[in-house]
Design goal:
mainly alpha, Leucine-rich Repeat Variant, globular
Length: about 110
């Protein structure tokens, strides 16, 4: 009973990250946004995986990863988002700038 409770406390909330990361680059916009929202809800568990998504060839994937990172608010993402403020895609640049502003507002220190 105690072991079972401990396992549940250490379990990651929500579905595994890998399918959500695949959906972030899916063809359908609904699946992509759903994945971005669910990854954002995962919080710090998803930060490293989302940072990797910032290097995707797919601008939509980069945009949604930046959006999710902004919602999570982990300062670890700041240097990666800052690099993408010079992305070739204007929408990605805007998403990164918004995420940077949000992270700084959420956790100023």
């Amino acid at each position: 009973m105690v072991g079972e409770r401990l396992m549940m406390q250490n379990a990651s909330p929500g579905p595994p990250l890998e399918p959500l990361l695949r959906d972030l680059a899916a063809a359908g916009i609904d699946a992509r946004w759903r994945a971005a929202r669910m990854l954002s809800a995962r919080g710090n568990d998803a930060v490293d995986a989302l940072i990797k998504c910032l290097y995707s060839n797919d601008p939509g994937c980069r945009l949604l990863a930046a959006w999710a990172l902004g919602n999570i608010g982990d300062r670890k993402a700041l240097p990666f988002l800052e690099r993408l403020t010079e992305d070739d895609e204007p929408d990605v640049r805007l998403a990164c700038e918004c995420a940077l502003g949000k992270i700084v507002r959420i956790s100023p220190f």
